[in-house]
Design a protein that fits this description.
The chain has a single domain, classed as YhbY-like (Translation Initiation Factor IF3), CATH 3.30.110.60. Helices cover about 40% and strands about 20% of the residues. This is Ribosome assembly RNA-binding protein YhbY.
């Protein structure tokens, strides 16, 4: 579980990032979760964009992704979800 201080730190890191995944009409599926897990291992922190045509609520989408990829939800702002998971091999971010 992330502390408030760690979340603030990660939010500042994520501020400059562009979303690298989009959740659309199909919602969240196994393939997407698998890709997100792999991307989290490589990057640790990134944004996911929830498109207008997505039928699920963005909070539900965030919970599905975080649960499936075993990640932490750093922030949900607008239609953008910020996810974080500590990498086992390519650790780049040191939390305060």
């Amino acid at each position: 579980m992330l502390t408030g201080k760690q979340k603030r730190f990660l939010r500042s890191k994520a501020h400059h990032l562009d979303p690298i995944f989009q959740v659309g009409k199909g919602g969240v599926n196994e393939n997407m979760i698998k890709q997100i897990s792999e991307a989290l291992e490589a990057r640790e922190l990134f944004k996911v964009s929830v498109l207008q045509n997505c039928e699920e609520d963005k909070t539900v989408v965030a919970e599905h992704l975080a649960e499936g990829a075993d990640a932490e939800i750093v922030q949900i702002i607008g239609n953008t979800i910020v996810l974080y998971k500590e990498s086992t091999e390519k650790k780049q971010i040191t939390l305060p």
